């Protein structure tokens, strides 16, 4: 049930592989701390891989919005990769799907940074 | 058809209660005959209502509890969540889809409840807020004999 986050670097982009649930409590905190740490290290091109995220609640949605805003405010870019159907539908009904830059191909997503 | 059933629980104002209630919603909606996608929506609506009760209503106060009731009657599943907070006026809840609110970190809970349930009723009680979530079984969810009656 808990959420895990691991990071890797590809061509100057930090890919955060997330798995589990982004929900009120631990899941939201893990995401918040991960993005905060990356920004603290000056890593401002962030690709959140949500392929193994099974569930997001309103708190998790809020955390994604907050991460997006924080990165943008520091002159960086945050994109989302590999949304599951549930997460895709959730972003659609909350009208956030068009706010986030959503990608379904990792190589293409990396190329799109900085353009 | 499942026999009519009504069960109530008194839950502590903790995050653990939110997770428990979500799991119970999955169980009750399964027993009621809803399909997987609908069960997922019901569970999310219950989770959001419980977050509202535990966090915004009771403020994690250990002296306050949340009453959670599941009622199934073969036609619909009715879930009632009542906290002991100061009371929520739904009219005062901003529209999370409005351009000025779209990038706010919070304020989507009630919207999500309404997105996944057929009916959501919110009323102030003394003390607290009572949220009633209703999901109706569609005819194609029932077996043919029941659907024709």
The largest interface is: A-B, 21 and 21 residues
Give helix and strand order of chain A, one letter per element, not per position. Answer: EEHEHEHEH
Oligomeric status of the shown chains?
heterodimer
Total tally of structural domains of chain B: 1
Mean of pLDDT of chain A:
94
Strand content of chain A: 25-35%
**Tally of structural domains of chain A:** 1
Summarize the amount of helix of chain B as a percent range: 25-40%
List low-confidence stretches of chain A.
Answer: none
Number of helices of chain A: 4
* The top level CATH class name of chain A: Alpha Beta
CATH topology of chain A: Transcription Regulator spoIIAA
Label the structural class of chain B.
Answer: alpha+beta
The named CATH superfamily of chain B: Histidine kinase-like ATPase, C-terminal domain
Q: What are the salient characteristics of this protein?
A:
heterodimer; A: 115 residues; alpha/beta; Transcription Regulator spoIIAA; 5-stranded mixed beta sheet; B: 149 residues; alpha+beta; Heat Shock Protein 90; 5-stranded antiparallel beta sheet; 4 helices; 5 strands; 35% helix; 25% strand; disordered C terminus
Ordered list of secondary-structure elements with their pairings:
The complex is a heterodimer of chains A (115) and B (149).
Chain A lengths: L3 E7 L2 E10 L3 H15 L4 E12 L1 H16 L3 E5 L3 H9 L7 E3 L2 H7 L3
Parallel strand pairs in A: 2-3, 3-4, 4-5
Antiparallel strand pairs in A: 1-2
Helix pairs in contact in A: 1-2
Chain B lengths: L4 E8 L2 H18 L3 H22 L7 E8 L3 E7 L26 H8 L2 E6 L4 E8 L7 H4 L2
Antiparallel strand pairs in B: 1-2, 2-3, 3-5, 4-5
